Amino acid sequence: MKGYKLKFLTAMLVLLVAFSTACGNGNDKNGSSNPSSANGSKESSNSGTVTEISFANWISVEDATKAAYEKMIADFEKANPNIKVKSLGIPFNQYKDQILISSTGGNPPDVMMANQNFSAAFVGAGIAAPLEGLVSANALNDIVDGSKQGVTYDDKIMAFPWAPHPNALFWNKALFKEAGLDPETPPATWDEMIEMAKKIASLKKDADGNPIYGIGVNNASLSYTGNMLFRDVLTYGGTFMNDQGEIIFDQGDALKQALTNVQDLVNSGAAPKGVEIKDLRGMFGAGTLGMHIDGDMARQIFRDTSGKGEAFDAEWGVTVIPPGVTGKSETVFSEHQLLIAKNSKKHEAAAKLVEYLVSQEAMITYHQMNGVMSARTSIAALPEMNEDDYAAVFNKQMSTASPFPAKNPVFDNAMKIASDMVILVTEGGQTPESTIEQVMPKIKELYAK
Amino acid sequence: MIRHSKFNVRQFGFLLFLMLPAVILLGITIIGPLLNAISVSFQDYSLLNSEHKWNNFHNYFDILKSQDFYHSFGITLTYVAFAVGLDLLLGLGMALLLNQQIKFRTFFRSIVMIPWAIPTIVTALIFLWIYQPDFGVLNYALQSMGIIENKITWLSSFDFALGAIIVVAVFRQTPLVAVMLLAGMQNISRSLYEAAKIDGAGPLRILTSITIPLLKPVITSVTLMMIVQNFQMFTLFYTLTGGGPADATKSLAILTYEVAFERYDLGKGSAIGVIWLIVLLTFSVLFTRLMNRESHR
Question: pLDDT tens digit string along A177-215?
């Protein structure tokens, strides 16, 4: 009897210790890459209240943008000592899913970075708050018209455009020279660009035996590949959707020509196979890619990937995308945007962070460190934002850039399916016609649901 | 007698009480979510819509009519068959070798587990670089030896992508199989081998008539475990190919993820998971019965 009582009491004690340990370890010690740890609100027990807000983003985990991000946040916290920003850095490829899962699970970050594709998904999922009433009317009215349309859903502004990134054409001067082309003269037309790419690719290898390619074409299984295919279709005179919301991606010849072009470039060795944007950036930085289409943030990326820092700037040039059949420099702009979570309990502090990040001070910092542009009319016109040829090219490119038709949240998925077309014509060896016939029904089915 | 039965009831109650935390934990982490997933599979449950209506078996009908599901099921079966088959073959070979009196046997027995100890995601990232067409060591080695002339885009090729994933899976899982089979071999009495040798049995005869039959219980457990584990493999597929190129490696795990989190349809995603669960449970029961029946003959 006594032995039994002793065992029972020992068991109770063990259970009590186990439960209190388990409950005590409920706090997440590692805040980054885990949006579920978002809702920390620290209140200082000393004088003054410090509000901690969480900011989900991907730029804090990318080498090229990390320094600018940290400076902007440090400057914000200095100007707002009662607000602390907890960074939730999530790699780009997992970003949308992580935010959706954490938000629908009841743990949204207070402020979310997004691009056009992601914003549509977040607004569609009902996790974003309208910005009217949170962000000042001055700031909202200052948004460039083209960007404002893209962030307005049912007449409400659901995201603040932060940094538009039109895509322009970068070229490697050394490879141009080696291929017998004028290193200071980029292609003037789309067809000339293709010819130059093939000429550069005929160099085959560099001194270290690395393969040389003429131009970068995204052909990995990602929505970004589909986005770039959309850009090419614009060059050939097509588009994705008409004003009535009908999918017209496969109407006319534009899609077929775009796929034929991609197939020709890859099969002829002018473009590498099976690569995504980060591979192409690495190749351009390594000096093995003749031409590459990318956004304004690419300058800093190339400085990092080349290992040469600012000295690498002398080895390349940037120009607007050469016009194709439309006679106009057709390109797309992706755009970083900022959203405030509907279920955040710290709207005021979150709005302050958003207003700061799109303010003149922060945008000049971001521009100086990464060459980004502003989506605010008053800031985009500042001399500090137009100080060099690089900025001038991107400002010029922005004037002809088209936004992604991303208001429907399935657009990102549609672009991922569209990337299959690029893969089927390059890896699969299929004809563009059969590829379009095979894949387009899946895209139309997405929109039909 | 009365004192004895009271004591049993008390002991039983005490036993239940001690098991309670584990049962509660299991309930919270497995049974609860499982029941929730089954419930969601009968609903129109979209992440883009706050209204979730009950739709009976609509999700199941949609999935069972969809070509995507059968395509992914086929990919998964192919992957499991090859991965588990190679795991067992190579694992058995490794175990036989490590069971011999070789030099530095203890050292080899310890380092053989290293691939298993590396997290799956890390293994996947290492192989991403090995398979890289322009800078990866695999193409470099094969071209240097004259085995291939042109670079192969292993993970973007329709012909090689699934095979490339299988290789990584086998690399990672074979050590575990080898160690489990080796442990089983330690329990086989040496006298059986000695008797067989005296009777003139060669190595192959010893393997097929003594080693493998006596290892059958271990082989059954290991096979079942590897089949279930590989059926659920997500990390390798997601990291190496993402289900591409053009769905060529879209396994059931990737399809479920895509349906649930990229098409935002948690209802259908859950339904795929439930179908998958039923398939695996049925297989496990049949497989175990079959192996047990054979061993009772």
Answer: 999 999 999 999 999 999 999 999 999 999 988 899 999
Q: Does residue B128 contact residue B156 with C-beta atoms inside 8 Å?
A: no
Q: Compute the average pLDDT of residues B78-83.
A: 97
**Predicted local distance difference test score (pLDDT) of residue A28:** 39
Beta carbons of B134 and A100 less than 8 Å apart: no
- Kindly state whether residues A424 and A278 are assigned to the same domain: yes
- Gap from B80 CA to chain A (nearest CA, Å): 23
Chain-chain contact of A19 with B21 (C-beta, under 8 angstroms): yes
Q: A7 lies in a domain?
A: no
Assess B157–A contact: CB distance below 8 Å, yes or no.
Answer: yes
Nearest CA in chain B to A208: B135
pTM for this one? 0.79
Q: For position A109, which CATH number holds?
A: 3.40.190.10
Is A209 found in the same domain as A291? yes
Task: Give how far B48 is from chain A: nearest CA, Å.
Answer: 4
Q: Are A223 and A117 in contact (CB under 8 A)?
A: yes
Instruction: Tell me which residue of A133, A262, A288, A264 sits closest to A210, measured CA to CA.
Output: A288
What's the number of domains chain B is made of? 1
Please state the φ and ψ torsions of residue B242, each to the nearest 5 degrees.
65, 15
Nearest chain A Cα to B257, which residue? A97
Quick check: A427 and B156 CB within 8 A?
A: yes
Give the model's pLDDT for residue A48: 67
pLDDT at A320: 95
Task: Write down how long chain B is.
Answer: 297
